[in-house]
Write a structure and sequence with these properties.
This protein is about 40% helix and about 20% strand. The protein has helices at about 20-35, 45-55, 70-80, 90-100, 115-130, 165-175, 185-190, 200-210, and strands at about 15, 35-40, 60, 85-90, 105-110, 140, 145, 150-155, 160, 180, 220, 225-230. The strands form three sheets. It has a five-stranded parallel β-sheet with strand order 2-1-3-4-5, with helices on both faces. The longest helix is centred in the middle third of the chain and has 14 residues, at about 115-130.
Length: about 240
């Protein structure tokens, strides 16, 4: 289960992994101004070492790094601890590829990005990483069962791992009770922002969820958005 670490400063700590000094310096300056504690790394091996030593609340991780890439950083870090990750890519098709591979990142940003958008994404990911201990609701749709409080799920009776973003996307669609949700509405509800530029992000995550649920739960309503194929039920 994801856990928000409490640091001695009382501030959330963000590890910025970026080998381009201008970008790294700009991100750190903005996050410092927003009240975050920051640390940095410039290569894959250094990122893994600092992540496991410092235990940040979130990692901003560039895909293309010296040593080894962000995919390997994500794999090695998550093998030890489930730290939320925002992956930064140079092209939108790289994001599609990473989501399709189920890399486990919580969100993706394509360069160039605005600092305002980055901060908004960080706030959403950190908020999602905190469990909802008082929410005992269990949703079921078809062969899917979702424990909202524990943020766990099973499909066809077997545990299935969804990233926090995938879990919230699926929850939003199931709770809509079969109603169609537009892409911009999903962006606002799940990612915390809404614009057409992010529609590829929604589509990529939908493809990943479909792969994990044998293409049963989410249906496409062409020209509009997505809907759950089964009305939700609450098991007794």
């Amino acid at each position: 289960m994801w856990k928000l670490v409490t640091h001695s400063s009382g501030r959330s700590k963000v590890l910025v992994v970026e080998d381009e000094p201008d970008i790294s310096d700009a991100v750190v300056a903005r996050l410092d101004g927003e009240g975050y504690e920051t640390c940095t790394a410039v290569s894959g091996p250094e990122a893994v070492r600092i992540a496991l030593d410092e235990l940040p609340d979130l990692i901003i991780l560039d895909l293309n790094l010296p040593g080894f890439d962000g995919i390997e950083v994500c794999r090695q870090v998550h093998a030890v601890r489930r730290i939320p990750i925002i992956m930064v890519t140079a092209r939108a098709d790289e994001t599609d590829m990473l989501v399709g591979l189920g890399m486990g990142a919580d969100d993706y940003l394509t360069k160039p990005f605005s600092m305002r958008e980055l901060v908004a994404r960080i706030k959403v990911v950190l908020r999602r990483s905190v469990p909802e201990p008082n929410d005992a609701e269990v949703l079921a749709a078809g062969r899917l069962s979702m424990d909202i409080g524990r943020r766990t799920a099973t499909f066809a009776g077997q545990p299935v791992h969804f990233t926090p973003t995938e879990f919230d996307l699926l929850r939003a669609l199931v709770e809509a009770n079969g109603a169609v949700m537009r892409r911009d509405a999903l962006l606002h509800k799940v990612w915390g922002y809404g614009d057409t530029a992010g529609s590829r992000t929604v589509d990529s995550h939908v493809r990943s969820v479909r792969r994990k649920t044998e293409d049963e739960i989410i249906r496409t309503v062409h020209g509009i958005g997505y809907a759950a194929t089964e009305a939700p039920t609450v098991p007794s």
